[in-house]
Each structure stands twice: as C-alpha cells, then as structure tokens.
Write a structure and sequence with these properties.
The chain has 401 residues and is α/β, with parallel strands linked by helices. Helices cover 45% and strands 11% of the residues. The chain has two domains: 329 residues, Alpha-Beta Barrel (TIM Barrel), CATH 3.20.20; 48 residues. The longest helix is centred in the C-terminal third of the chain and has 27 residues.
Length: 401
C-alpha cells in the first residue's frame, strides 16, 4: 500500500492548475551516463539536473522524451562497440528510474499511453535516440531499440556518421561543409534505417542532420518526420536551425518541428560562448582532467559559480526570444506543425525556463503573444501526439497483407 506521503504526491501530480494545457510534452531531455546510478542523479530526489521528477511535478511538465545520446566517434568496429555500450548505459538508467518510481512516472510507448498516464496522475517517460551511430551499423539494433521503448530515431549528431551528413560536420578532420558539393546527404544504410523505422512505427528525427539529409529523409520516409529540437534559420542564422523551405516541406509531409529553447539557436553571443569554453577548460584542469567532460564537470560547484558570473556579463536569451522563434515557425509551417522542446541537461535553458519547474512560464508567454488555448494545446503536445499516432498507423498499414 502506498504511504500517505506518496498518495499526496500522486494527487499533486494529477492536479492541473487553471490554464494548464491538456498535456505538456517535451521532446528532448538529455541524461548523463551515470543516470540513476550516482546518488546525485537519483531523479526521485532533488538533483542538480534541470529535469527530475520533482521539478516536472512542480512545473507541470507531464511528459518527456529522455534521450539516448552518444558522442560521434570513428566508423570502426571499436567505435561502434563503444557507442553501443554507451547507449546501453542510458537505457539502463531510464529503466532504473521507471522501476524505482512506478507510482510517479511510467513508460509510454504509444501516443495514447501518454494521455492515459496523465489521466492516472502519472508522469510519462518516452525514449528517443540522438545519433544513430549507437546502432553500431547494425539494422537489427533498431528493432532492439524499439523493443526497449525508443519511439524516435535521430539520424545523426555533430559530425557525419554512417547514416547521413551532419549540419555541423567535423571540419577539423576533413569532413566537407554542409551544402558543399561533397555533402553526400543520406547513405544507403540511412535509407534502410528510415525504411525500418517506418515499418516499426518509430518517428524519424532530422534534428542535427544536414539540409541534404533532411531532404533525403523527406524523400524516403513514407511517414511524417519530426525535428525533435531545432529552430528557424531565418530568425537566427545557425547551421542547426532549419531554413524556411525545409520547415514548409516538413509540414507539407505532415510532420512537426519542435522549437528548442537552446541559447545558441536563439541568440548570437560569441563572447558568451568563449567565456563558457574558458570556464569548462578551467574547471577540468582544476579537477586534474585534460579535457572537459559535461557529465563530470557540469554539476560541480565551481561550474555553477562560474556560470553565475558569466550570466551577469552575457545574459541568456529569454522566453520572448523563444516565443519569437515559435511565432516564426508557426507562420511558415502552420500551427498544426510546431511543438516545444527544451534540450535540458544538454545545454538547454533560457531566462524564464531554466529548468522543468518553470514550465508554466512557457505557457504564459505564449498566451501573452496571442496564442489561443487551442493553439497552446497543439504546441505543447497535441501536434506531436498526432504525428506519432500517424506514424503508428502507417506501420500498421504497411503490415497489412
């Protein structure tokens, strides 16, 4: 039997505040490799992470895709093996969270399960893949990921991989610039992954992909595609942001662009970027490390203190900047094809939405900008759930004899 404290907590989770949309769903939350293994990353307690269960409950964030991210490495047997092992650490961490806190958060593997969990007063955890390098160039691992609960597959990250070219190729090691003559777009293996994702009912995610790879994904996918955490290049000229023609093309195929609250895609501030890199190097050196490691160094007191000082001189973008990006993407792609992502614990966080406990501030600024309750419901999850459902239906249709 649940304790009185847990029953009270469950009631708090299920109790929406006036003005809350039907569901709030964030499509991109990163996790450290030692998630749920180190005590400081036990998300059932108060943690230094920007997303833990308490922050979700207090802020009204009902559902999140927790991300299986691995850094890009060499396209070798050794590189693939390391990526597969790193991905397993993150699947294991999510599994530990779900097993340890079943009365607060449950896995959702279908679009309807998200709403069912919410009606039951539970948070929803979904799983997304960021950088399919972690498949280890083995198509069968996509099926295994689906069986583990993954419901979107992000093709690439920073640096080209064996599926497609990146919006941020590794120029230091000779990778060609995006949109250059040597930018190859999607590979044959990438096309196989897209085809199999369609058959499984797994959403194809093009965030981080080069423009040419996005075009290929639109060409080869039989189902709508998503951008799990991207922005608008017309508002801020950054390679990770999408140009208007691709925003329109994703919408025309029925997909959704999840606009992300990531500082570098909302505001051009090279001085802040330089200050952050200098701080990272200094904290790493002070801890006896040759290189900065986000999992090891981001949550140290020295890093937190240094970031406070940086913020004084180089303020983060604000919720108004974020709302401006959303308005532009809505204008270009249409209200039915836009959603919201944070990239929390992967660099996301802006003034007004610094962690999951401030989620209701996003709703407030959207309402201030003139979005109706129906519009906000679409942006906060309705559009993504519709696309997810269409991808599921497409898989069922393909399976018909």
């Amino acid at each position: 039997m649940l304790s009185i404290a847990l029953l009270a907590l469950g009631m708090a989770v299920g109790a929406a505040q006036a003005g809350d949309p039907p569901i709030t769903l964030d499509t991109h939350v990163d996790i450290p490799f030692t998630y749920m293994r180190e005590p400081r990353f036990d998300v059932g307690k108060n943690t230094p992470l920007l997303v833990d269960l308490g922050k979700m409950e207090r802020g009204g964030l009902n559902a999140a895709f927790f991300v299986i991210w691995v850094p890009q490495g060499p396209l070798t047997a050794e590189g693939y093996a390391k990526a597969v092992a790193q991905a397993e650490e993150k699947y294991d961490g999510i599994g530990r969270m779900l097993m340890q806190y079943p009365d607060r958060i449950r896995l959702a593997t279908t679009s309807t399960q998200v709403m069912a969990n919410h009606r039951a007063g539970l948070l929803s955890a979904m799983i997304g893949i960021e950088n399919s390098y972690s498949l280890g160039h083995d198509l069968h691992r996509l099926d295994a990921a689906y069986d583990r609960g993954a419901r979107y597959v992000g093709l690439v990250h920073v640096g080209n991989n064996d599926l497609c070219s990146s919006s941020l190729p590794d120029a230091k090691h000779g990778e060609p610039a995006m949109n250059s003559a040597d930018d190859h777009g999607m590979t044959a293996f990438g096309r196989q992954v897209v085809e199999r994702a369609n058959q499984l009912g797994m959403m194809v995610d093009i965030s981080h992909a080069s423009d040419r790879c996005v075009q290929d994904a639109l060409r080869y996918s039989k189902a709508p595609i998503i951008a799990s955490h991207s922005g608008a290049r017309a508002v801020l000229d950054h390679p990770r942001n999408l140009p208007d023609d691709l925003l329109r093309a994703i919408a025309a195929k029925g997909g959704v662009i999840q606009v992300v609250a990531y500082k570098e895609f909302l505001k051009h501030d090279p001085a802040r970027e330089a200050a952050e890199k200098a701080l990272q190097q200094a904290v790493a050196k002070a801890n006896g490390d040759a290189e900065y490691d986000s999992d090891k160094h981001d949550y140290l007191p020295a890093m937190a203190k240094g970031m406070v000082e940086i913020e004084k001189n180089h303020p983060l973008p604000t919720l108004d900047d974020f709302a401006g990006q959303i308005q532009h993407v809505v204008k270009v792609a249409g209200i039915d094809h836009v959603g919201i992502a944070s990239d929390f614990d992967g660099g996301g966080g802006i003034t007004g939405w610094m962690d999951a406990s401030e989620t209701r501030n996003v709703t407030a600024v959207l309402r201030k900008r003139g979005f109706s309750d129906a519009d906000i419901a679409k942006l906060w999850g309705g559009n993504l759930l519709r696309v997810w459902g269409e991808v599921e239906q497409g898989a069922r249709d393909q399976a018909q004899p």
